[in-house]
Structures are given as structure tokens and as C-alpha cells.
Design goal:
Largest sheet: 4 strands, antiparallel
CATH topology: NADH Oxidase
Bound molecules: flavin mononucleotide
Number of helices: 6
Oligomer: single chain
Strand content: 15-25%
Length: about 180
């Protein structure tokens, strides 16, 4: 349990990477942890695109604004995983959305992504989730069919820096008992 707590607590977003290849064995470990993620009705709507082609990484990095702190990470990481989903699977039953939120793919992809990030950290690798980019441009670059969406980009590689811990809210400020309690 302490190991897991440490892995969860010490994972940081990594935006600078060593020029060191990520082995197929490691990529397979990351994919294994993705495979065993929970999902809506076990719908497993995810599609993961592993990008190691320099031109493709460069093109994707151009979909981020220059101000995005991860703009260089998308270009310089040895691999980038595009986290994509098939639409109308997660949150749907017999083709109909069954909750007020309709699509649940964002939720399922979040779980897949966290599994990959924690596994990567456990294996000595770093990741950064990138959500702020031009999704339509990236969709074209990745040749995704219309009924699929790309949600995030995940550069993966050996860290070239070790960022300080980031701040978190105190548990007491986000836990409610029996019903919503307004902050005092
Ligand atoms: C859904 C999501 C989208 C994110 N998008 C970006 C992004 O576009 N660029 C970036 O540099 N970091 C991005 N991040 C990373 C967060 O900034 C980071 O997780 C947060 O500041 C906490 O830092 P830590 O991951 O080191 O604990 C994103 C994180 C999440 C969960």
C-alpha cells in the first residue's frame, strides 16, 4: 500500500525528456495497464496511437499554442501516445445515451491515462497529459475516422528534470459528509 501511495504522490508532469529510447517491452507494459482499465459497461472505447515518427510528432506539437508549457514535450519526447475514443460507446446502451451526461468517453480515457501515467512513473519514465491543443487539427493529422475523437496527447520518456511537488487542496476542503456542505 505504501508503494502505491508513493507512486501516486510522487508522479509529476514531466515536460523535458532525455534523448533515450523507450523499449518495446516498456511500451507493452504501458499498454497492459491501459488494457486493464475499468470502463463504462466494459465498453473499452479507447484507441491508442503510438507515435514515434519525428515528422508526425512535430506536426502534432504544432497543434499546441506556443504558450502551452508542454509544447516542446510533444516534440522532444521519444514517443507520444494519442489517447482517442470511439464515440457513442461509453455511456450508451443499444445506441442510446442513458445519462444526462451522454458521452462518458472523457471519463474512461481519464482512467486509461492515469493507469499509463502511474505505470510509466513506476518504471522510471515521465509523462505529461496534454489537453489544450487544436483537437480538430490533431484529428486530421492522425487520420481519425469521423466517429472517433482524440482527447489528449501523452508524451512519454525518461525524465530530464525532477519537478518539485505540486500543491493540492487539503482533504478536509473537498470532503462532504452525508450531503453537500458549503465551506464555512
Ligand atoms: C486533463 C488534463 C489536461 C492537461 N493539459 C495540459 C496541457 O495542455 N499542458 C500542460 O503543460 N499540462 C497539462 N496538464 C498537466 C497539469 O498541468 C498537471 O497535471 C497539474 O498542474 C498538476 O501537476 P502534476 O501533474 O505534476 O502533479 C493536464 C492535466 C490534465 C489532467
Amino acid at each position: 500500500m505504501n508503494d502505491l501511495k508513493d507512486i501516486i504522490k510522487n508522479r509529476r508532469s514531466i515536460r523535458k525528456f532525455q534523448n533515450k529510447e523507450v523499449s518495446t517491452e516498456i511500451i507493452n507494459d504501458l499498454l497492459y495497464s491501459a488494457k486493464w482499465s475499468p470502463s463504462w459497461g466494459n465498453s473499452q472505447c479507447w484507441e491508442l496511437i503510438i507515435i514515434d515518427d519525428e515528422k508526425q510528432k512535430y506536426n502534432l506539437s504544432q497543434t499546441l499554442t506556443k504558450k502551452n508549457p508542454a509544447s516542446l514535450a510533444a516534440r522532444n519526447a521519444p514517443i507520444v501516445i494519442a489517447i482517442c475514443a470511439q464515440k457513442k460507446k461509453s455511456g450508451y446502451y443499444k445506441g442510446e445515451a442513458i445519462t444526462k451526461f451522454n458521452e462518458w468517453f472523457m471519463y474512461d480515457l481519464g482512467l486509461v491515462t492515469q493507469n499509463i501515467c502511474l505505470t510509466a512513473h513506476c518504471l522510471g519514465l515521465g509523462t505529461v497529459i496534454i489537453g489544450a491543443f487544436n483537437h480538430n487539427k490533431a484529428k486530421k493529422i492522425l487520420k481519425l475516422p469521423a466517429n472517433y475523437e482524440i482527447v489528449s496527447l501523452l508524451p512519454v520518456g525518461y525524465p530530464a528534470h525532477s519537478p518539485s511537488p505540486t500543491k493540492r487542496r487539503k482533504i478536509s476542503t473537498f470532503v462532504h459528509k452525508n450531503h453537500f456542505n458549503f465551506p464555512k
